[in-house]
Each structure stands twice: as C-alpha cells, then as structure tokens.
Here is the input.
Amino acid sequence: MAAILMDGKKLSQKIRDDIKTKAATLKENGITPCLAVVLVGEDPASLSYVKSKEKALAEAGMESLDIRLPQETNEKELLAVIADLNKNDKVHGILVQSPVPKHINEETVNSAVVPEKDVDCFHPVSVGNMVLERPGFLPCTPHGILMLLNEYNIKTSGAHAVIAGRSNIVGKPLVNLLIRRNYNATVTVCHTGTKDFQKHALQADILIAAVGKPGLIKPEMVKEGAVVIDVGINRVPDLSNQKGYRVCGDVDPAVEQKAGYLTPVPGGVGPMTIAMLLQNVIQTAQKHGG
Here is the structure.
C-alpha cells in the first residue's frame, strides 16, 4: 500500500489565507507588514527562491522591499544596508538570501540582523531563545515540518526520530524542537561521521532527510510504515524537461511503497517553509502594531 502523501501545498495555503486576513486587519490600523529581501549576486537558484517569496508576500497582502546588490558587494557595504534596514520602522523582517558570495562571512551577516527582525531565526540570540524555549521566532523549515506532523496527527511523543543532516538551518534546530516536552520525541542525528547509517534509519518511526543528495534514502533504509519527511530540493539534469533539469528530493521515489506517510518534492516541505516565513513577518508586525 502506497504512503499517504503529506500535502504541504494545501496546508500552506490554509496558513497563508489566515495570514492574509491578519495582514488586512493590520492594514486597517495603518500597518503594512513588510519583509526586506536582500540578494547579493545573481545565483539562479537564489533568484528563484527570492521570486517565490516575493510572490507569496504579494498574495498575502504584504510588502516586500527588494534589494539586489551586485556580486562584488563587499561585507562592509552589505552590513551598512542591513544597519539601515534595522533602523527602518516600516520593515518588520529582514532576510538575506543564502548563500552570500564567498568573500562575505555569512555568520557576520546573520549576526548583523537585529533579533526582532530575524525572521529566518539565524541570529545567535534567536537560536538561543529557541533552545531555551523562550519567546521568539522559530526557524521556517523546521517549524513547517512540525506543522505538517501536527496536521496529519503524527504521534511524536515516544517516537524515534532520525534526522539525516546536521545543518544550522534544518538538522540542529529540528533536534531542539522535537525534544521539547510538547513533542517529546527521542532523536538520533546522522551525518558524515555516522557508521552504518542504514541501521539507524531502519529504527526511525519518523525519518527526516535534509542532506542535499538526490535519492539518498532508499526503500531498504526505511521501516515499514514510517513517516518520511523529505527536505531535499535538488536540481538534477533532465534533457526531457524544458528547463534542462528537474527538481527532486533526498528520498528515492520508490520509498512511497514502503512508508506510511511521505512528503513529496515538490509540494511538501517547500511550501511550508514559505508559509512559516510569512507567519514570522506577521508575528513581528503585530508586535509593532501592539
């Protein structure tokens, strides 16, 4: 029996409709939620991500302040732009599209955005608040995954969650969120130093793949009926496609015949990430309005 596909597109639309209502209420009070999106260079994938975010903002009745900087922009110039945005009362969130060019230190950039506008939850203070369960933003992709688990009534308490990947964007935050008492999962993290990854993966009630390797998770790595969350968004060459590539995840499509639940790529975690970003912007705009 094939897995139940977890429809992130449908759930994200429900969340975005609610955000649109909240944005309209704020506008009636003279506040237009605004996200500043800063892009350095012209990386095709980054351009695509930025456009999708800006489209989502417009559809939700929110503003985007689009700031495009040339590839040769230096760190000092970028930090000056961020400093101006920090002081701009009409900007409620700041997003610097990752990755930045190699001559710019990404950690320095992340730390330059004031925590109250750090809708990506990359600032050390934001991360600390999340770990200590203090009020603040939750990182967009991990939060979107939790919302999907909630929507499909996936039991996390006592479940063994295995996360493939230890990135600051997905893997590490997910560990901290899943071990909270309201989720109460037991978490194993696998990475490049893990011996016998398949052994760990087969123990997972919830298997989360966030590595960036197409087809990494094979059916023989998945326990019958497990929940499989595919965070991977990979572009692989495909001459049959007009664009010359196709988008796929970290999970082999054949896993659908083994898993109990599966997030598709595209249409699973991706839309949820954008929905949670919009929710963070609304959250800070509402505080501004309060």
Summary: The chain has two domains: 33-115, 140-270. The chain is about 40% helix and 15% strand. Residues 33-115 form a domain with the Rossmann fold fold (CATH 3.40.50.10860).
